[in-house]
Design brief:
This protein is an alpha/beta fold. It contains 25 helices and 17 strands. The strands form two sheets. It has a 15-stranded parallel sheet with strand order 1-4-5-6-7-8-9-10-11-12-13-14-15-16-17. A two-stranded antiparallel ribbon has the order 2-3. Helix 11 packs parallel to helix 12. The termini are far apart. The relative contact order is 0.04.
């Protein structure tokens, strides 16, 4: 009886599904089935290589890590059976740099990596590997190969995402110009984003939409970044994020308005007081779905007079309130509570995620504020509430409307009250009022075993982090664990961060508790002690000669 071969389209669909599931092992096995299946499986395998446990460091293995990059680089010079580098969709030059920096620690791995055709990349200066020169040479080879392959096939470049810890200012534009399919760029040092890079994107990358910088702190950062935004095609940028120290200000924020119709996500994670005062310059950017604004120094809330002025505050509230499509708002700045409260009064905004952490002292005007509007956010799934000012958020236990509003959020799955102080009665009300809650993080009144019962009754609890002082017994915790033995709580993680040291569990009891979590609940429990008696005992001995 003759066998019937499956169409290639079936193998393609199968391998695409395996890639979507990040099933690297099965994809690799598929590549060994036959010559018909191998190129399909390998294309999907290398298209997600940056997500593998080896690449992200979850399964550290220096040899396997170097083997992965060696195969990609060798393919760029035609020394492999298949053109692996052409399949890559996200090229992390930063990851390659880390790999190259790690190689000298093992002479065997170094010899393996640079043997044979890779010898041409073995650049040594003063007896040491010239990491940056090797990095640029390897990345250049990969990108040129991708370009040649696309040109010869008359097809679009598969590579869509480019990331680099450091890419020289004069090299970046040339690389961008060869990557017609580039959609996103993630750069550590934003100062390399000059006019040449923006022009290359505008002329050669019609699908480019996303830009992320880790930091941008050059003296002319504000004007240079403004020039970059203005040189891009108008209304082409969809997302911009800056993560760490930066000197952006009015010029860059004003220039972002040239992308007001396309921008969906803005994230300023280290904003200065001067930049905060300039936020109203973004008034035309009202199509946002995600907005993140975080203070440069979390506990430094000495804003300038302009940033603190009522007029600027009201203009910020007015701008954000006009973003009718806003779904995710994350504020970690002075006046965060005032801004969020003002935005919540907008009847057209329905959040799915809201974080309001005020890094300044809560003003007297905030006391007695009507938080009823928060309770009307019936689509809210994630809520973070807190303050960097100790005691400033204590109004959560005295403000009935705020507690009541939180309890009305029936679709809430994640609640973070780590930077708050809530009483036991409010805690119990929350635990019994939110049926979909799966992540619960809080601080507040000291707790005993009696509070474990309502916590254990939360139907779908998967993460519990308790930052308040606790006086739990082994019996109470074990009973709590047994209450969690239900399908919706499998895989639960419990962190008890301030158990009173005098009530430290016996090692045998703690081991038994951890075993139950691991084997029965398929999760884990960790307990940290306040004034751990064993650590104090060790310190006493360390002070003696």
């Amino acid at each position: 009886m003759s066998s019937i071969s499956l169409p290639q389209e079936i193998f393609l669909l199968l391998c695409q599904e395996l890639a979507a599931r990040r099933d690297f092992g099965t994809l690799f096995n598929c590549s060994l089935v036959s010559k018909r299946v191998a190129p399909i499986a390998l294309e999907q395998l290398y298209s997600i290589q940056e997500l593998s446990s080896i690449s992200i460091g979850d399964d550290y293995n220096r040899l396997e890590w170097s083997r992965l990059w060696r195969s990609i680089i060798l393919s760029s010079i035609g020394k492999t059976a298949y053109p692996y580098c052409v399949y890559v969709r996200s090229l992390s030059i930063g990851n390659l740099e880390d790999c190259l920096s790690d190689i000298p620690r093992d002479t065997h791995v170094r010899s393996f990596f640079f043997e044979g055709p890779m010898e041409q990349f073995h650049l040594v200066r003063d007896g040491r590997l010239s990491i940056m020169s090797i990095l640029i040479m390897c990345a250049d080879s990969i990108i040129k190969c991708i370009k040649r392959s696309a040109d010869s096939a008359g097809a679009a470049v598969a590579l869509e995402h480019l990331e680099g810890t450091y890419i020289p200012h004069d090299v970046l534009p040339g690389w961008i110009a060869q990557l017609r399919g580039l959609r996103s760029l993630r750069i550590r040092d934003g100062s390399v984003l000059g006019l040449d890079a923006a022009t290359a994107i505008s002329q050669h990358c019609p699908d480019f939409t996303d830009l992320t910088c880790y930091y941008y702190s050059s003296p002319d950062a504000d004007t240079d970044l403004a020039a970059f935004f203005l040189a891009l095609r108008p209304n082409s940028l969809r997302s911009f994020e800056i993560i760490s120290k930066n000197e952006i200000g009015p010029a860059a924020l004003t220039a972002l308005n040239t992308h007001s119709k396309s921008l969906r996500s803005l994230s300023f994670r280290s904003i200065s007081a001067q930049a905060k005062a300039a936020l109203p310059h973004l008034s035309s950017c009202t199509a946002l779905e995600t907005l993140v604004i975080e203070n440069r120094d979390f506990f430094n809330y000495q804003d300038s007079d302009d940033a603190e002025s009522k007029e600027v505050l009201q203009r910020i509230i007015a701008w954000i309130s006009n973003c009718k499509s806003l779904k995710d708002l994350n504020l970690r700045i002075k006046d965060a509570l005032s801004i969020a409260k003002g935005v919540l009064l907008s009847p057209d905004i329905r959040f799915t995620s809201l974080s309001m952490v005020d890094v300044g002292p809560t003003s007297e005007a905030m006391e007695g504020v009507d938080w009823t509007a928060l309770g009307s956010q019936d689509r809210l799934e994630s809520l973070t509430l807190g303050s960097g000012d100790t005691g400033a958020i204590s109004f959560i236990q005295s403000e009935f409307r705020l507690a009541e509003s939180i309890c009305n959020l029936k679709n809430l799955t994640s609640l973070n009250l780590m930077l708050t102080y809530i009483t036991s009665d409010v805690l119990e009300r929350i635990a019994t009022s939110l049926p979909k809650l799966s992540e619960f993080i809080f601080s507040g009144d000291s707790m005993t075993d009696s509070m474990l019962q309502p916590l254990g009754n939360i139907p779908q609890l998967k993460l519990l982090s308790i930052n308040t002082f606790t006086s739990f017994s082994f019996e109470g915790l074990y009973e709590f664990a047994m209450k969690l033995n239900r399908p919706n709580c499998m895989g639960i993680r419990v962190d008890i961060l301030n158990q009173i040291g005098e009530l430290k569990l016996k090692e045998s009891d703690y081991a038994r508790l951890q075993q139950y979590f691991a084997e029965t609940l398929q999760g884990r429990i960790e307990i940290a002690y306040y004034h751990d008696p064993d650590e104090l005992h060790e310190m006493d001995f360390s002070d003696t000669d």
